[in-house]
Every structure is written in C-alpha cells, then in structure tokens.
C-alpha cells in the first residue's frame, strides 16, 4: 500500500527537462553573443582612439595662426529730441 514512484520519468518531467536544456543552451548562446559584441565594441573604441590621437598630434605639430583681435563696434549714440 505504499506509493512508490515509478522509475520511468513522466511526460511532464521529460518536457520540463527539455525546456531546461533548451533554456541553458540559449543562455550560453546569448552569453557568447554578448561577449563577442563587447570585443567588437572595444576594438572599435581602440580604432577611434588611435584616429583621435593621430588627429590631435597632427594639430599640435602644426602651429596655429593667432586669431586677429576682434574689432570693437562703436555704439551709436542717440540724440534726445
């Protein structure tokens, strides 16, 4: 009269195991995608940094002409009527 569990898995437990396996595989793929995207972002940042540093070095090497001083405008004086 004791209820014993059968040694064969039920259909529900098989379906649950399949869902868990698929979720685990999908999670691993998602983590790989995130890691790959992070590498691509860092690579692009390094490329842009190199371009910026080269541009800044080029600007620093070439002397900048001094800007002429701005002319002051004369204010018109209004005559009182």
User: How far apart are the termini?
Assistant: 120 Å
How much β-strand is present in the residues?
A: under 5%
Which runs of at least 5 residues are low in confidence (pLDDT < 50)?
A: none
Say how many strands there are. 0
Biggest sheet layout: none
Characterization of this structure:
This protein has one helix and no strands. The termini are far apart. The mean pLDDT is 88. It has a domain at 11-62. It is mainly α. It has one helix spanning 11-61.
Provide keyphrases for this structure.
81 residues, single chain, elongated, mainly alpha
Give a concise summary.
With 81 residues, the chain is mainly alpha-helical.
Topology overview:
Elements: H1 11-61
């Amino acid at each position: 009269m004791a209820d014993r569990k059968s040694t064969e898995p039920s259909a529900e437990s098989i379906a649950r195991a399949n869902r868990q396996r698929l979720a685990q595989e999908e999670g691993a793929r998602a983590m790989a995608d995130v890691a790959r995207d992070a590498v691509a972002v860092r690579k692009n940042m390094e490329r842009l940094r190199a371009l910026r540093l080269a541009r800044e070095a080029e600007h620093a090497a070439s002397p900048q002409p001094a800007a002429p001083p701005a002319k002051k405008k004369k204010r018109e004086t209004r005559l009182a009527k």
